[in-house]
Design brief:
The chain has 304 residues and is an all-beta fold. It has no helices and 27 strands. 32% of the residues are buried.
């Protein structure tokens, strides 16, 4: 991997994407010889808002026929500029911290890395033995700690781990939270999955409090969050114990990896769309998508 200063590039603004009144595409059984896949030249996924600027985000960019080679980029939706931070293999799961560092995974070496949002510094965070796996990194609100899912080598059971910005282990949690661990703004509580059910962990007392639904992304009021189940994607309101469906389940239009703007007005996510062109050909694309907090006004960010 190498750290690059990417040249800023002006591109067309975002455009309106398909709304939810568009039918979910139906795809027939896969042909015996397998599908022929077609799609755009570029694919974009796993985006995360800049915590200080709702107009820009970090995401993974890959080119057609080079799915194992990616770029970590920052894109500004106001200026339509793209900046390349890192190029490498198997990059994934970027998360933008409050102090301007972006942590991400590299499945090439199964370690965690972080890069400054201006591409000025690239640092390897973890240097664990070969065979170790590091996934789902998430910054603490103050930008001084990272929680991650750690799987030791040789098939030993995995668990969640908290490290500092030098990669030093601060704490191994007794219970694994799997993926999508979320810090609460006070820095003392983390949500995650424990034995298949959603919980909030108090890091001071180690008390586990069950909650009805997993936190995929937390709104600034700390009382509402995005979650999902077999019915689709919804916002859960803890105060009223109610759910608001924002995207129905659709296997040919899948939303993944959610981020919420610091004013709580926008949801940033990525979707993968599949559409059958003929009996042998599937069109697939992965895009970064914005929408209002209620799931309306869907827009696809057209990154060139």
């Amino acid at each position: 991997m190498r750290c690059l200063y990417g040249a800023a590039k002006k591109i067309p603004p975002i455009y309106s994407g398909p709304q939810d009144n568009e039918p979910c595409y139906v795809i027939s059984d896969e042909p015996v010889q397998g599908w022929v896949y077609k799609g755009p030249t570029l694919a974009h996924r796993t985006a995360d808002f800049d915590p200080t600027n709702n107009n820009q985000f970090v995401c993974i960019e890959s080119e057609e026929d080079t799915v194992y080679f990616q770029r970590l980029i920052v894109y500004n939706m106001l200026t339509h500029q793209k900046r390349i931070l890192v190029t490498g293999s198997f990059l994934d799961q970027p998360h933008w911290g409050s102090k301007g560092w972006i942590v991400f995974t590299s499945a090439y070496d199964d370690q965690l890395w972080m890069v400054k949002s201006d591409a000025s510094q690239l640092v390897q965070l973890t240097k664990d033995p070969a065979g170790s796996l590091h996934d789902f990194p998430a910054w603490s609100p103050d930008g001084t700690k990272i929680i991650l899912a750690y799987n030791p080598p040789n098939g030993a059971p995995g668990f969640s781990r908290i490290i500092d910005t030098n990669g030093n282990v601060l704490r191994n949690l007794d219970t694994s939270f799997g993926g999508d661990a979320t810090w609460f703004p006070d820095g003392g509580h983390i949500s995650g999955i424990n034995h298949g059910k959603a919980h909030i962990l108090d890091l001071g007392s180690n008390k586990m409090t069950p909650i009805p639904y997993e936190v995929k992304a937390l709104f600034p009021d700390e009382q509402s969050w995005i979650s999902r189940d077999l019915g689709g994607i919804f916002v859960y309101h803890q105060k009223t114990n109610s759910r608001q469906l924002i995207k129905p389940l659709c296997t040919t239009r899948e939303y993944n990896y959610f981020s919420i703007s610091n004013d709580g007005q926008q949801i940033l996510t990525s979707w993968r769309i599949s559409k059958q062109l003929d009996s042998q050909t599937l069109w697939t694309e992965e895009d970064i998508v914005t929408m209002d907090a209620n799931g309306n006004n869907v827009k696809v960010v057209d990154i060139k």
